[in-house]
Design a protein that fits this description.
The chain is built from nine helices and ten strands. The protein is of the alpha/beta class.
Length: 281
């Protein structure tokens, strides 16, 4: 019997730019490629949970096209201030994207990352170990300073992108042999505009630091593949990896901007880039 490789889709963070991931998934669905494992960070956690909960690409697309900035955030009105924005609207909007009842019963493995504030460690919420709730998703989306931290149990969490925006190792350790990674910033893109607001400065820092982390992880994956091909590492199978990135820089302002017109552009861009990169799948 032919071996069927286990497939993983890794979705990175980037706020309102996450509509790009919807476009990539739209192409994958048309191509008949379905993931067994979904790894998501920040807005990637939202899209990953949406796909795992059974939402079709069309349904995910509609969720994006119905969502505006006011559905995600509003200025923090209470004192003491915990952040620039209050994400109470985001909690309600999550139900537009995710069917949490279906998510609790999915046969797909979902890995959501968040950064535990008390320890500074990366925490992975694994659907095989916990029932994923809005709190787990919001924990992964809690951009420091911009959004408030999210409490899950006795711990407090910030955005998973603080520690690992594209955690390739999680997918490999979960057994993935075909891996599609979606980034929301072009690899090696360094000519970014000068930040005009504090939250844009935070986005630049995360983009630069986590791009380096991803490139390190990719080199590690290439090293594992070389060892497997040489017969030195019998505990792993060779992992085929495709990386889909925007063919043009989406812009810093779109991290906190959720607008149907912008989302339409990003969905179309994600679809076109996926078609160009993933012709061989």
């Amino acid at each position: 019997m032919a071996h069927t490789p286990k497939r993983a889709l890794v979705l990175s963070g980037g706020g309102g730019r996450g509509a790009y991931e919807c476009g990539v998934y739209k192409y994958l669905e048309e191509a008949g490629w379905q993931p067994d494992i979904l790894v998501g960070t920040s807005i990637g956690a939202v899209n990953a949970a949406s796909i795992a909960s059974g939402k079709t690409a069309r349904e995910l697309e509609q969720a994006w096209l119905q969502t505006r900035t006011r559905d995600i955030q509003r200025f923090w009105r209470l004192r003491p201030w915990r952040s620039v924005y209050d994400t109470t609207p985001w909690r309600r909007t999550l139900y537009r994207f995710i069917d949490f009842d279906n998510l609790a019963q999915t046969d797909k493995r979902v890995l959501i990352t968040a950064t535990e504030i008390e320890s500074g460690d990366l925490r992975v919420f694994d659907s095989q170990e916990v029932t994923l709730t809005p709190d787990h998703i919001l924990a992964s989306c809690s951009i420091p300073v911009v959004y408030p931290w999210t409490r899950v149990g006795d711990a407090h969490y910030w955005d998973g992108a603080v520690m690992a925006n594209t955690p390739l190792r999680l997918a490999v350790d979960a057994g993935a042999e075909e891996l599609i990674v979606v980034l929301l910033s072009p690899i090696g893109m360094r000519r970014m505009s000068v930040p005009r607001h504090p939250w844009e400065a935070i986005a630049v820092v995360l983009d630069l630091a986590l791009s380096a982390t991803f490139e390190h992880d990719l080199r590690q994956l290439e090293r594992i593949n070389r060892l497997v091909r040489a017969g030195v590492d019998p505990d792993h199978r060779e992992v085929r990896c495709w990386v889909v990135t925007p063919s043009r820089y989406p812009g810093l302002s779109r991290i906190l901007r959720y607008d149907p017109e912008v989302s339409r552009e990003l969905i179309d861009l994600g679809y076109a880039d996926a078609r160009n990169v993933l012709k061989s799948i």
